[in-house]
Amino acid sequence: MKNQWNVDHNKFTQADIKKVIDTDVLVVGAGNAGMMAAAAAAEKHAKVMIVEKEASINLLRLGLGGVGTNAQKRAGLTINKHDLVEYLAAFAQHNVDEGLIYHWANHSAEAVNWVEDNILKPHGAHLRSEPDAMVTSSAYEGFPTENDPTIDDQTFASYGDWFQEKIAELGVDLQFNTALVDLVKTDDMVTGAVVKNVQTGEYLQINAPKGVILCTGGYSANKDLLKQWNPLALKKNVYNDSPRNNGAGITSALNVGAIKDEEPAECIFDRGLVPVGTKTDEMYVQTATYQDWLWLGSHPLLKVNLRGERFANESVPYQFIVNAASKQPGYQYAMIWDDNYGEYAKQFHTLGCARVGFPGYMASAEKLEADTQQYVDKGLVVKADTIEELAEKLHLPVDALKKTVARNNELVKANIDKDFGKEAYRLTPVDKKPYYGCILGGRILCTSDGLRVNKKMEVMNAAYDPIKHLYAAGNDSGGFFFGSYPDRVPGLAASHAQTFGRLAGQQAAEN
Ligand SMILES: Cc1cc2nc3c(=O)[nH]c(=O)nc-3n(C[C@H](O)[C@H](O)[C@H](O)COP(=O)(O)OP(=O)(O)OC[C@H]3O[C@@H](n4cnc5c(N)ncnc54)[C@H](O)[C@@H]3O)c2cc1C
């Protein structure tokens, strides 16, 4: 029996608890926040245990944001912290705890530098900043916050295994296949948790007198919670790329009197390929393997609604086009392009992971074309010699699409987007056959509304007082994001998780 949150709480009796384990600090979830929290607490000589419900740690992210990191200093980059914080707060219409954003900005470099010095350097790797990422236009503003782990400055270096070695060296006890079931609260203090071995079904109690740190990564895998807290996300998104995150961290804290953000926030990418004719209500594919993920989707090519009409400036952060499509019939949109798209990609200067060339994942225009071709072969991207044929294959009204393409080409010739204001260098024609098209929807990467925390990362109760010895970090913690994710501060999500994980670990160890 599940509760109203569709999470397995309160399903055991005391008699079911077969074993009691003592530690100082218990971290729940071995992802971006949890691994940092564990390392930080262990560095302060606490005895630390991490419980992770899957059989491996989660992917430690490659684009790491930060302000004033050593990598940025080496690249001669400075970021004005006040401008950045104001940008983030304004982006959220100030529906955030601005002090927390400053707290991140003040501590992010420490966390990023710690990863570089302790995890990367011993393995011959370092961080490289994205020096030309500062872009300022009214629609497309970017800050050069991203730091990328690399050995050769051409490709990413994955560092999860190295991190796992490091926490083992620090004496952290990492238990896989072990899921949080419930927090244990005695009087006014959290003293540990009940967890379940998901392979044996056995319940264990873990006593953690210095604190429990919740780092389970939000709730994007839990459709029942999405229905309650963010129903529009189920309409906008056709994929969930974080299938591990079912909300257990957040709901376990609500069970002991915590409060959470009252409004939803999420990070969405615009790369979800939808088979033509599928309704968004019918599709929410949970995948950890980038299934049917079209990198090209984040390029500012012509995008039209399901009536074949252009509906927004395509030169915007990833999530915006998905948001804009949610105000159109069917919640999805089509992208239309022509055979010169490899050339256009070079002129677009897309940032972060959408870049062609490092730190993007598409090393060259040729690689982008090959990536796209696999979806032509799979039938998710359609190809045609005429716009009429393309419209038919995409189930779009033929006359409307022909009119939209003709208008697009007219604007390209005039070198000005009189309809939606896209920058001239991002206006591209659709006039060289074969023509291409696909239907796209959103991919939710994570939810980011979470438990309200103070600057010590302590989870707060309804009186805004801390629930003693209960901490949250990463997407289990809130007060930081509102609505959409600010994509133009690349690496913010992972950095928020790692920076606040580190602070929570240090804090708990000091109890
Ligand atoms: C495809 C993709 C690309 C991304 N790219 C970037 C990027 O380049 N830069 C960036 O800044 N952000 C990126 N993000 C977002 C970033 O990964 C997240 O914001 C970040 O991982 C959040 O960290 P977290 O520790 O809160 O959660 P996670 O890293 O998701 O870790 C949560 C962990 O908790 C475990 N868990 C869940 N429930 C339980 C339970 N009941 N008991 C025990 N363990 C549990 C999960 O299995 C998981 O291992 C990306 C996300 C995705 C999906």
TrEMBL record:
What the entry lists under Gene3D superfamilies is as follows: FAD/NAD(P)-binding domain (3.50.50.60), Succinate dehydrogenase/fumarate reductase flavoprotein, catalytic domain (3.90.700.10)
Keywords (A to Z) from UniProt: FAD, Flavoprotein, Oxidoreductase
Name the needed cofactors.
FAD
**Chain ranges of the FAD-dependent oxidoreductase 2 FAD-binding domain:** 24-484
Any Pfam family matching the protein: FAD_binding_2
Protein name according to UniProt: FAD-dependent oxidoreductase
- Organism, by scientific name, is Lactiplantibacillus dongliensis
Specify the taxonomic lineage.
Bacteria, Bacillati, Bacillota, Bacilli, Lactobacillales
